[in-house]
Write a structure and sequence with these properties.
5-stranded parallel β-sheet; alpha/beta; 50% helix; Rossmann fold; 3-stranded antiparallel β-sheet; 225 residues
Amino acid sequence: MEAIIITIDGPAGSGKSTTAKIVAELLGYIYVDSGAMYRAVTLATIRNKCETIQQIVHLLNSLHIELKMSPFGQRTFLNGEDISEEIREPIITAKVSFISSIKEVRTAMVDLQRKIGAQSSIVMDGRDIGTVVFPHAQLKIYMNASIQERAKRRLNQMKSKYSESTSDISEITEQITHRDYADSHREIDPLKAAEDAIILDTTVMTIQEQCEFIVKKAKQLIYNE
């Protein structure tokens, strides 16, 4: 049986990562967090004090990024070091949109993502997976939600991970608004729904409802159930 690829794209806070993980588990597929790859590059640029795009591009040749499964979920490794927690820090979140807009970075990450997709059936989430990385995927989902709901989700996520966080809803809303604009207006592979994607508004949906919807669509479109 050929490898099945399900893509889940969408803006920050739309619920795509959490949903993608559960959908992959329910279908017995491998979950691939494409955003973790860009965050790994972002971390490397900070550690190496890169100040120009030329320095960032030069650094790419020395980076070895791996995604490995563990009993605790997917882990991200940079040159053999587990950086799964560090890449979720606010400083990475603030810089990753710029790093991911660099053509050479996107080319390198897309190549890596396609290699992973060629090996087994996967559920991959990101911002250009259905439009650029796997334009011929069997099932494409584009998730979105109101900016108010997305900001609330992101704030709750931050507070659960960083109890000392002082961010408030207005600050998070501003950050997401900026990220939305940057992602959708970048010159290389901007955030947008694929023409053949199923649009899923998750504003008033629970995680369970989102997952059930996608799994049902997967079985209908891929398995004719």
